[in-house]
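FW: tagging you since you asked about this chain on Friday. Here's the raw sequence from the shared folder, copied in full. Didn't touch anything.
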Amino acid sequence: MKVDILVFGAHPDDIELGCTGTILKSVSEGKTVGAIDLTQGELGTRGTAEIRRNEAEGASKLMQLSFRKNLGFPDGFITNEKSNQLDVIAQLRTHRPEVVLCNAIKDRHIDHAKASQLVSEACFLSGLKKVETLDESGSPQEAWRPKRVYHYIQWEEIAPDFVVDISGFLDEKIKVVSAYKSQFFDPNSAAPTTPISSKNFLNSVRYRAENLGRLTGVDAGEGFTVERFPLVKSLSDLA
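HL: got it, structure written out here
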């Protein structure tokens, strides 16, 4: 299935925290969006791989994703090596996205930056004809390179290169994030506390989006960084 946008996350919930509003807005505009988690998040202090898989399924329905896959890389030990690159390349060539969204270039969790670089380099290699991959039926795949690769922002306060206006989608984003009941604030949970299980962290998802909106003159926004300059045809294309 070809999609307009393919979104990657190191763990189930990365995508939701980083760019749910952008996904929801894109789908509302008629774009097709697929998602790929690199790991099952099995090393997480709270929950289990099975619980997070079920939570990801619930979040995917709310985001109206065309599909969601998990590549099963080891949580905490993502490596930017040939075999993993080829696995990602095979997905890029299967779904042939125009745009790829992936993890932050720098972040608190060590998997995030490694996943960011892995996906970014795979996007380049996917366009090389002499890099050989096979589809699920065992047939050779044609080269494909996404036109744009953008990195969403996670824990770190990274200055965005551009901001997507997600006004009207913030409440829905919070609902999607809250599908991960095992991970985020729950006053009735007896699970160990983590940096992302506090009420302050859940609140930060909203106030970060609202603050980006304040800075850009809208109700809410999501920030992204780029690897190469985005191009506009004229000054009137800039909001």
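FW: The first strand starts at residue 5 and ends at 9.
HL: agreed, and DSSP finds six helices and seven strands in the chain.
FW: great, closing this out.
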